[in-house]
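Section 3.1: Structural characterization of target chains.
Under the original work plan, the team committed to producing a structural model for every single-chain target entering the pipeline before any wet-lab resources were allocated. The record below documents one such target. The sequence was received from the expression subgroup and is listed exactly as submitted; it comprises 204 residues.
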Amino acid sequence: MAHLLGHEPRFTTRLVLRPFRRKDTGPVHEAVRASLPDLAEFLPWAVGYQRSVTSQFIKDSIGAWASGRAFDFAIRAKEDEDRHLGNVSVWFTSKANLVGEVGYWIRSDVSGLGIGTEATARVLEVAFSELRMHRVIARIAAGNVASERIVQKLGFLKEGTLRDEVKVGTRWLDHTIWGLLDREWRYEKRRYETEISYPPLTGT
C-alpha cells in the first residue's frame, strides 16, 4: 500500500514546513553556502558541493514525495517564507514493519534557536499520526552534538553505534542510532509541547 501525504503546509508556532518546489533552488543554495563548513563535516553531499547538487535534490524530492518514497520539508519562518532555514525529512525504511527515519539540517547562522527541535517535533507528528509509523529512528554522525541534542529533547533513546557507517570526504564516520516508538511519542509529545519554549525568530 502506498503511503502518500497531502502537499499542504504544516505549521508550528514559528515555522512553516512545506514540500520543495523547483523555484527553491536559489534559497536552498544560499542556505547551504552559508552553512557549508558545518555541513561538510558530517554530510557526504556537502563535500565538493555545487549548486547542481541542490537542483538534483529538489528534482528527486518532488518525485519521491509523489511516489511516497520520502517526504522532504523546507523549513521557513512564518514571518519570512522566502529565506530557507533548513530541511527536515521523514521516510520509511520498512513499510512492512512501519519503521521510518528522520533527518534534518539547519543553517548555521540560525543555530541555537530551537528551529531543528521545533521542525522535527512537527515532522514526528506527520510520521506517527499521518503515516502511522510504529517506530522512528535517527542516525547521527558521531560528534554532531547539536543534532544529538535535538533527538534527546524529543525523547529518543540512544540504541547503539554503527561503526564506520558513512564516508565523508576521506573520513569514515561512526553514527549513533536513536529510536522512538509510537507509544513513547504520545507521552513525549505532551511533555515537550508544554516544557520546550522557543525564542522569537525576529531578525533571522
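The longest helix spans residues 25-42.
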